[in-house]
Write a structure and sequence with these properties.
By secondary structure, the protein is α/β, with parallel strands linked by helices. Helices cover 37% and strands 16% of the residues. The protein has an eight-stranded mixed β-sheet, sandwiched between helices.
Length: 297
């Protein structure tokens, strides 16, 4: 196993100035996997690093710069391609628990003793499992546009959602229809976000492939098998948790965010208006401000 290069004082200053559009793609070998990640932000604070886990078919470039650069003003941010995703090597597991163990192996290899954790969509599944497997490593948890294991209406997406989420070559229109509400304002904000996602022109991440799509879909489907008894596992998450979603998430269903907030011991809930699954891209500054306030020690 190799470890990242130590950063000189000059490199630390540079890293603090970097953002989503300029941060270097780093790699870390853990066993037979080379994890690709970006690490940037303010390393001078006492706040734990914020590790961020991405949505179905997403890679490092799928994080909106307006969101992650605001979060990085107050702490270090670490964006991760898990096993087999984007530029990371290996095969994507068809199981959320294995995904969580892979993320933990990466966190351990970086030498991080405590983190804050943000999981979006499928990343929120992984985040929940990670906290349950290693409860002492996570200080605070953010669950964005996600759902508990066994929750309602997860096992089989609607025909519309499936058609938008799984094409071999997804388009910007697919993303707009899947992530944003049908209102003119939401779609306009969606177009602005999509424009920001493509502003990085150099050293972009590798796109996710069809094998990633199929393995992640298998994991999502298994997680969503209806089973009320699985909700009891949420009692094991005792960290303060910020649960957030749009008011019309047709992919993970907003009702599941309400369910998470009801079942988690120390949860705060915010539902953003006229927004869908991609509420955090529609309201990047607002959501980042809410996350910042929640993560403040």
């Amino acid at each position: 196993m190799s470890t990242p290069k130590a950063l000189s004082n000059e490199s630390l200053v540079s890293a603090a100035q970097d953002g989503q559009l300029t941060a270097e793609n780093l790699s870390l070998e853990v066993g037979d996997v080379s994890f690709v990640y970006r690490r940037f932000g303010n390393p001078e604070t006492a706040a734990p690093a914020l590790v961020m886990l991405q949505h179905f078919r997403g890679n490092l470039d799928s994080w909106d710069p307006a969101l992650v650069d605001r979060l990085a003003q107050d702490r270090e941010v670490i964006l991760l391609d898990n096993r087999g995703v984007g530029g990371s090597t290996g095969l994507v597991p068809e199981n959320v628990t294995i995904m969580a163990r892979d993320a933990l192996a990466f966190i351990d290899a970086l030498g991080l003793k405590q983190i804050d954790l943000l999981g979006f969509s499928l990343g929120g599944y992984v985040a929940q499992e990670l906290v349950l497997l290693r409860p002492r490593v996570v200080r605070r948890l953010v669950l964005a546009g996600t759902a508990p294991q066994g929750g309602p209406d997860l096992h089989r997406w609607s025909e519309d959602v499936y058609a938008l989420a799984t094409p071999d070559e997804p388009t910007a229109e697919d993303l707009l229809n899947l992530f944003f509400s049908g209102s003119e304002q939401s779609r306009a904000k969606g177009m602005e976000s999509i424009g920001r996602l493509y502003r990085r022109e150099v050293d972009r991440d590798e796109p996710t492939d069809l094998a990633t799509r199929d393995a992640q879909l298998a994991a999502i489907t298994a997680w969503g098998i209806p089973d009320d008894s699985k909700l009891n596992r949420l009692a094991g998450i005792t960290q303060p948790t910020f649960v957030a979603n749009g008011d019309n998430d047709t992919m993970m269903h907003t009702q599941n965010s309400h369910l998470l907030a009801q079942r988690l011991r120390h949860a705060q809930l915010r539902i953003y208006p006229d927004a869908g699954h991609g509420f955090l891209n529609q309201y990047p500054e607002l959501f980042a401000g809410d996350v910042h306030a929640f993560l403040e020690p």
